[in-house]
Amino acid sequence: MTRFPTSALNAAAGGLLLSAALLSSCGSASAPTDLAPAAAAPRAAVTVGQIRLDTIREVLHLRAISAYPAKDVLRATTTGYLLAPVPVPGQVVRAGQTVFTLQTKESRTLRLDQLTGDPKLRFSGIIRIPSARGGVLATVDRLAGDYVQDGEQLGLVYDQTRFGFILDVPLTELRYVRQGQACRLTLPDGRVLPGRVAELLPAADLAAQTQRYTVRPVGRFPQLPENVAVSVELNKTAPYLARTLPREAVLTDETQTSFWVMRLLNDSTAVKVPVRPGLEQQGRVVINTPEFAPHDRLVLTGGYGLDDTAAVHLTN
Questions:
Q1: In this model, does residue 5 exceed pLDDT 60?
Q2: What's this model's pTM, rounded to 2 decimal places?
Q3: What range does the record give for the signal peptide (predicted)?
């Protein structure tokens, strides 16, 4: 058995320990000394505001059609030929003004209109047809030179002083409409005219179950043709004060059975608060319950999709 010197064994052991120490130092240098900090949780950017007191009116929205209820039909009073000049549609006429002129067929055949020597021949065969009332000529049905029969319609005059709108009110809403009630008329181009409910017509639509009223514009109004559809707004209640929020601040689920708003607990946390919304008017929603304090901060925009307790970032 071979024996190694003790000094050689000690040197070898020392070398092994040095190698282990070096390997340990290299491994510790490559290992992380501590864990990386966790990423900060994202925050939703929101704008906030307070609840507001607004004057609210419950409004009934209906449709009406423009109409000229007073019309005069101008008819031929004899058989003959229509003489020039013939008026044009849209022409304004006065009460008693001659609108159409006829010449009888006998007068044209015998040329009675050209006989001037004998004073006994006072009948010239020229017939004048005046308008019974002032208004605007809506239609002209014949041209100069046309041969017309006795009683044939020549034109139609609308009495502009009787211009109005025909309003059909559902029988379920009759309690909100009365004669003399003020209303607002919105024309197709966006103009709004003041109006007033005038006459109650003694007729109801059997199929639609509606009661018919006439509505008259108040003050000056533009000249409109018949059969123009307008929107009519009538107040269902007297004005009252109510707490409102913008429509965007009131959130709901897919079935629109649950409603809520997001209220700030502090500058970085918002919580869900169930609400019972009411009437919506001009982009604002009445909040019936709960009663928020004037200093409560509520999320106006950016609250869509937030959880019950959400981290937020104020942008206003």
A1: no
A2: 0.60
A3: 1-31
